[in-house]
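User: Modeling request: complex.
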Amino acid sequence: MRYTEFTPFDIWLLAQGLGVTLGLFLATSLIGVFVGVLWGVVRFYRVPVLTQVITFVSEILKNSPVLVQLFLVFFGFPAFFKVNVTPVDAAIITLSANTAAFVYVIAVSSIESIGRDQIEAARVFGLTRWQVLRHVIAPQAAAFSIGPLTALLVNQLQVTSLISVIGVMDLAKIGANLNLRTLKPFIVWTVVGILYYLAAKLVAAVGAKLEQRLRAHSTFRGL
Amino acid sequence: MLKVENVKKAFGGTVVLDGVNLTVNPGEVVSILGSSGSGKSTLIRCINGLEKLDGGRITVDEFDVSRPKELSEARKRSGTVFQLFNLYPHMTALQNVTLAPIEVLKRPKPEAEAEGRALLASVGLGDRADAYPAQLSGGQRQRVGICRALAMKPRYLLLDEVTSALDPEMTAEVLAILAKLAGDGTTMVFVTHEIEFARQISERIVFLEKGRLLVDLPTDQFFAPTGGMAQPRVAQFLSKMRKD
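Assistant: Request completed. Predicted assembly structure:
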């Protein structure tokens, strides 16, 4: 016999799932942003070979499904590299790498959006390439990139739901389990959908707040 | 001494500088005249190391700008003011002025800021030190640009058509400051279309035409009928510029 009613414990399960989703999202976003920006800096310095390798890796990550990447890591790493990969490991590796690939694109375009004239001025006054990056390019590129970055992260939050297929107990997986037990898909998936929506809104709101702060110098332009 | 020796520069197949020689002695104000596209700005960009030379040599107090190791020393000795200001838009006027002294000369921040404020006050921007470039008028921005160059205490001030983007009133603001600097004995290489002003402040005037230095004469001789004006191209240029 099957128990199809909702219980108060289901709320606790959903909260746990949301926690796992947000935790993985935050961890992979931090790693992804860090790595993506680092790749962008490598490109800024035009490091030979490394720049080409990064561009190649980023191209592959951007142009193949996250699900395929996830399977390759989860099943491929143990088979080829003889390492033990838990579902959470695979989720962190895949999502971080995927976020990094897209952050790299944003970082490169943000750096390139800064007018050459200012960079030339800074160089003429004797600032090193690193000082120019640190004081002239980075603050402006950060303000420029925060919009696309927020959009990317909102999307990556939804993408985390893919990891449920390899058994990570995230919000989507909890939803699937509840659905199987209660056989009430419209209620379960509506609630799960609302939770993702609220989480995404939170990410967008943080992004908007950050952008406001980083763009303080241009707010009075009246545009 | 700032020395430009037989400098050649081409962009693609277009020759922009074709064997230019120029010497600027400390304390001198040298104005560079010439029509648009004659290579004036490129010459400035070669002196401050923004363009690689295709031939010849440029030395700033014996430091060769073509040698990476000497370029930073050469750059410390020359300060550039740009046609389009090139201020850092995310920094206040004061931060624009103090960035290089703090980062390059490693001056303590309070000291650099006190000097920066004094410089801004000296060009009439004492109350605008904390404004961002977008909050300033063109003339004010260019005055910040001048302060930014002066903050590095350069021995040579390179001015690249610094009033070309300004209306006559703002131009007057900026020229007044340059006249004061010239009076104080600042060495200047002054690329300009302001012929009358160049005549007032310069010791020497050189005329560039198609990447070649056509005339290099003391100011009074440049404007004399037997001097620079004896060159048909110079006479034609001056008569055109004055009509406008």
